[in-house]
Design brief:
This protein has 235 residues and is of the alpha+beta class. It is built from seven helices and eight strands. Strands 1, 2, 3, 4, 5, 6, 7 and 8 form an eight-stranded mixed sheet that branches. Strand 4 and strand 5 form a beta hairpin. The protein starts with a helix and ends in a 14-residue tail after the last strand.
């Protein structure tokens, strides 16, 4: 019994900052493999456009408070949709679906979350002065990625690696060139095309990838996009 409770505490400590409390409790009852494994996942990147220019109009403390309000709202949504927070990179957010708990509909959840984030951001912007409003780009890609605890004995992070991760990041940046907000890859498109309204954009070759990829704009969902009910596993 002592060993079981110690293991559950380790799970809660490891994933408490990445996942919603309900999902953490589910993991405590059904622990995942913590080593690096290859899985089909969907990765999500978002970034604020023109953030440097926006930040010049605010004091450091004001900027931190304003950015934290945005990051909190966006992160809460990712967790509500069953996503795993990977990291913040300044004003950028990286998260993913499909691990540590397997999700057959990982691509659908990620796409719904992206659309919901745009809705919530629009409401936030309505309450902010024009000089403080954010405009963001989101990139989504699905495929085989290596996921697990990576780092050193002193500091580890539950994160992703692989070419498919890099492609997701590239797609986020490409939004600027096409004047879009959410771009998904052909891999993600194949998994969600029946549930969403999607517009084909182009066939491109992104930096670091020799094979051309077809990219799409995620426009809307054909069904409701409210967060799913995240149940807790029973003993």
């Amino acid at each position: 019994m002592f060993t079981e409770e110690r293991d559950k505490k380790a799970i809660r400590d490891t994933f408490g900052k990445y996942l919603s409390p309900k999902v953490v409790e589910q993991l405590a009852h059904d622990p995942p493999e913590l080593g690096g494994t290859d899985k089909e996942l969907t990765v999500f990147f978002s970034d604020i456009r023109g953030f440097t220019t926006l930040s010049e109009n605010m004091s450091p403390q004001e900027l931190v408070n304003h950015l934290n309000e945005y990051l909190t709202a966006m992160t809460d949504l990712a967790l509500d949709y069953g996503g795993t927070l990977d990291k913040y990179m300044g004003d950028a957010i990286m998260c993913f679906w499909g691990a540590p708990i397997p999700q057959q509909d990982h691509a659908v959840l990620a796409c719904k979350c992206a659309l919901k984030q745009m809705q919530v951001l629009a409401k936030l912007n309505e309450g902010w002065p024009e000089a403080k409003r954010f405009d963001i780009g989101i990139g989504l890609n699905s495929g085989i990625m290596t996921v697990g605890n990576m780092g050193s004995k002193l500091r580890m992070n539950y994160t992703l690696m692989g070419d498919n991760v890099n492609l997701g990041s590239r797609l986020e940046a490409i939004n600027k060139e096409y004047g879009t907000h959410i771009i998904i890859s052909e891999n993600t498109y194949a998994l969600v095309k029946d549930k969403f309204i999607i517009r084909e954009l182009d066939n491109i070759r992104v930096k670091g990838n020799n094979k051309p990829v077809v990219i799409y704009e995620l426009v809307d969902c054909r069904e409701g996009i409210e967060p799913p009910a995240l149940g807790v596993a029973k003993k």
